[in-house]
Amino acid sequence: QIFNQHNAEAPNLEQAFHRMAQMEPNLDHDVSWFLLPSYWAKMVVALISFLCFANSYDGDFVFDDSEAIINNKDLRAETPLGDLWYHDFWGSKLSSNTSHKSYRPLTVLTFRMNYLFAGGFYPVGFHVINIILHCTISVLMVDVFSILLGGLQFSNKGRRLNLAPKSSLLAALLFAVHPVHTECVAGIVGRADLLCALFFLLSFLGYCKAFRENKEGHTFSVFWVLVSVVLGAIAMLCKEQGITILGLNAVFDALVINKINLLELIRKLLYKDKSLENAVLLRKGLLFRITLLMCGGASILYIRWRIMGTGPPAFTEVDNPASFADSLFVRAINYNYYYSLNAWLLLCPWWLCFDWSMGCIPLIKSVSDWRIIALAALWFCLIGLICQALCSEDSHKRRILTLGLGFLIIPFLPASNLFFRVGFVVAERVIYLPSIGYCILFTYGFSLLSKQAKKKKILAVAVLGILLINVMRCALRSSQWRSEEQLFRSALSVCPLNAKVHYNVGKNLADKGNQSAAIKYYREAVRLNPKYVHAMNNLGNILKERNELHEAEELLSLAVQIQPDFAAAWMNLGIVQNSLRRFEEAEQSYWTAIKHRKKYPDCYYNLGRLYADLNRHIDALNAWRNATVLKPEHSLAWNNMIILLDNTGNLAQAEAVGREALELIPNDHSLMFSLANVLGKSQKYKESEALFLKAIKANPNAASYHGNLAVLYHRWGNLDLAKKHYEVSLKLDPMAPGTKENYNLLRRKLEQLQKKGG
């Protein structure tokens, strides 16, 4: 609702405005809640939203953070900034068949800035920015809810009035402390949702500014409508959902600015009522503004399409099983069940999980499944709310319910599977924006209950209790997001049927060296999902290291049978076959891996080891050279080249390779050690000594380093230093091969020298 200055000379215009505002229904009349000045309300919301998620500030990089940040080359300074506009969120080319088509260049740009300012991958800075963003969004929600719940009205000085200060504070607090937001705030990749929400809200507030009457007396500003479109485009460049704000702005314009009664409009359209010629569509510039929004939205989508191309994202059945179902009935019924789960997470955010795929939610395949009740409950509530939003005689009620449903449903549409397949079943992050609609409906419901309740204070205490419980739940959930171990284990009780949960717990244990426990979780992941090739590959790797080669071979063979282009599994199968001395099969497996992944330095390294075992020295050197070309910092490949050339008597070539390697990896002590050995054999004792000492300084507890330096001194004639380093080597490793014999030879020589001297 807008108040325009039609008579600038009226002395008591603002008083008249307030009297008019009081004639409108107002939620605050019935809400028993705290009344604070706008500044203090925003301070309270900011403080409480900060307290909810503050303990996540020093968390690690967890789950998807590894792929989106640590392994994303777009964050590195050497990657041209222009590449961000042609890559997806994970750093892959949008034209690639493996791209998820998640086009969020502005979010990646903020990650890059974090990385550059911090000087590396330090998670604290990333987490702090996320917390600040959520606090900022929560503060903006006070203004947004004041408009959505109280209407849009301006004073004669052009200031927007908050006609629902109590209701807007309550709704903003509900939003700020909702536990379902934890993934967006505590998970760094959730920044996409946070940035999208920020510009989404700014677009809405900008659109509202368009209706503040200017000095020329125009009832709306084209400039602010266009600003709103631009901010909507920025929101979309942070995450796909951002584009939906343009539709919501149109809904807001129709319902609040033009006060359109949708049911009445539908009736007139159905009966072709001639009065439509003078309908509100043609008044107050609504048609013009909606045209601007539609043209802006179409332009944004066209540009996005031109950049991204037409290819659909590549998802698998395990990501979203319902979307791969042959039956339209099965797809429809499961999609609706997913909607009911999202609704339940908003109502009761107690069971939260980092991933809901891979069997976490089994498909509903018949109407006899008891979970159909959830669908019925969802649609019963939605239909009831829609009927009230359309048919109520109370225009205030119609407006709030329609806006609540609009903000609940429209931002969720990109994740609904209705327009295109998405790569998840349920994702808590995608209901960050739809929770705005939930907060509107909750606050309106609270006002209705307050109106009927005799003891309003008890009701207010109950709502305060809900807020406190949510704050504690947020703090607990934030602490679970601090490390992968806590995050993955927290999911075991929520989604025990999710193979990915067991896989991630197993991977975390394997990374910490607890192979026995990891095997248990990997086996469970494979049992839950017999086609889970990544679990088979990792389990096969552990079994290979434990010398359980035959079972490892079975698992890896099954993995490549299920997914023939799984390059890592082919390489690991080759390693197992090599260990079983089936060299021809191993070579074939390595080349198959390289066929499916052209740039695979680790596979070339292992192929080189195979050729070395077969005494095919030139082939081995070529394979290792390929590995170092693809990955110049591949220390093992460089080392093996130096050692092979050394062992075959090619000392000059070994020295050249060693020097080349150290130029590329100057602080690698193993390369220093290998080159020092070569230089010692070439009688370049001084240079060899310097490299040995440098290697020992970097790794003082390596017995072989001290032992080989002792051999150098022994050859060089520095017997006392040789004796010293032999003793250090034997102290570190009493069983060091050859060292004890060399030490005994030295002692005998020293004894002989003493006798001669005596």
Automatic annotation (TrEMBL):
Its EC number is 2.4.1.109. Residues 311-383 form the DUF1736 domain. The keyword Transmembrane applies. Coiled coil: none annotated. Pfam families: TMTC_DUF1736 (PF08409), TPR_11 (PF13414), TPR_16 (PF13432). The chain crosses the membrane at residues 33-54, 131-151, 188-208, 220-237, 243-266, 286-305, 372-391, 403-424, 430-449, 458-476. This is dolichyl-phosphate-mannose--protein mannosyltransferase. It comes from Thryothorus ludovicianus. It is found in: Endoplasmic reticulum; Membrane. It is a multi-pass membrane protein.
